[in-house]
Amino acid sequence: MFKCEINVVNEQVQSMRIRINMINCLKYLGLFFATLVSVSAMAQRSTDFALLDQHGTFHQLSRYGESEFVVLFVQANGEPASQQAIPLLQDLHTRYSEQGVEVLMLNPIPGQSRQQIIDELARIGVDLPVLQDSAQLVARSLQVTTTDEAFILDPESHDVLYRGPLASGIAVPATPPETPYLEQALIALLEGDDLPEEELPAVEGAPIAYLYQERFGDRQISYEDEIAPILKRRCTTCHIEDGLAPWAMVSHRMIQGWSPMIREVLITHRMPPGQIDEQEGAWEDIHHITDEELITLVHWIDSGARNAGEGDPLREQEELSEQWALGEPDLIVDVPAIEVPATGMVDFKIRRADLNLTQDQWVQAVAYNVGDRSVLHSLLVFAVDPNIVEKDEAGLVSPENTEFISLYVPPSTEEKFADDSAFLLRQDRDLSFKIRYVTGGRDTIDATRIGLYFRDTAPEYEVHNVIALNSQFSIPAGVVNQVEHAQTPVFENDVWVESFAPQTHTRGKSMTISAQFPDGTVQRLINVANYNFNWQMNYKMRERLLLPAGSRLISETVYDNSASNPQNVDPEADVKVGITTYDEIFSHYIRVLKPVQQ
Ligand code: HEC
Q: Cα(49) to centroid of ligand 1, in Å?
């Protein structure tokens, strides 16, 4: 991948340099002149977007690329016109879904919760997806001013093809809905005709109160005091010189130049990466960004992304440390050095290393001294049966011969187990690694080292990684939503579940893991609503959960083998289970704690 580098020479020439470099960067990305786009034009432009619905399902406009059109209706709970429209939308869905028409609703009303939306639709007897736009970014991008406006969107170009009323007569109790404005437009579009030329009546919905207006009014947002701190909190751990991200956030100029792209990654929830559904569960150290921060960043960008002050907090950044994150390890293991080319897709690298332990060891923590941060995207560490040789790549990662210990996902370079728990590394084990690289625009060699930290005494709990595994499926080319399941064996004794590291390859779309308790009740524990192959994370619960003896964990994973899946390495191929990037897997590692028998 191309790197945009900025060399600071001295203060006088610095801004010129930055400008030149920035232009190079933007040119490369096809964003040349992006900064010249006027504020109003930017608000008008059509854009991709992504949101979760009332059930926690992820919807992204561009991922409906296999469909012809997306109908989007602006809904509000308790609003008579919305209530009257919902059965019409259901009817549209029934009659047009076969022709590739998706029907979605958008709820941009702050404070209307998922449960309230579920209840509202249940009263009407309909269950269509309602996208919760709690930061109002989508409504704002579409310049929605009232509820009850309806849209027809092109999922590929993101263009707005129709905007206006759904039908006439809605919300006027005496008149049943008559002229189906939107449906007429839909029929014309499906037939490839121009839209009927008729003057559309105004939509008479309830006005939408925008949080950004309430919060900022005419006030200029301060780059120095409000924007830079958000970027430092949420972005610069990776967007730093020599960091993992392809460009570094080192100055206001850089941010301003990238601001259209930043807006897009925020509204599609691509960055910060690896976001999960935060309305389910409570999580430690996840990449996330709050609605408040999103509203502030996007309002600042839409107002021109200016810096009125002198200072630039992004210039003062800490250097990445070359040291071990947790001090000198008890044992350092070298991952064999691997050559990573400048470009192209690099298949998983599977390697092993001898350990030569003289006794069993309790591993309290694992730290990573990364060789080349700009290319290493993930590294799984397993304890492996020493009889498995280097050439037997499938054997080195197969659950029969291995137990998963730890996962490196940038930017964190350490994984410490809780004080009362540790992983028992048996004397006769070696280590194996499954490594993923993303090329960074130059040839490089990654020689990463792994530090193990032992404890002298047995802990209260043994860290144990169970796996929800399914190796019996295939996915035909082009299939958008293939649902697969797997479960752990039933736990014979009480265990505490602590974290989840779900793993699929490029067709993985979403996944959930639930606990099934001995009485049969099922509780969803994690919803990775928008799985991204580039970001295979380990999600740690803020508080471990007791699974009484007789419980088990069940996992559901949805795969998307269509061309609308941006990660898909080959949408033309029927896919089966295997170890290369072109194959698929369903291997969700789940960390549980078992009391140690003293
Ligand atoms: C965990 C590391 C990480 C964090 C945190 C992060 N980024 Fe990124 N960012 C990346 C990587 C890596 C890429 C390259 C694309 C990819 O791998 O997904 C990227 C790409 C981008 C791009 C270019 C889009 C593209 O198509 O490549 C933008 C814009 C961006 N990030 C903005 C942000 C913003 C804004 C934040 C904070 C709100 C942020 N990033 C937080 C790692 C990160």
A: 16
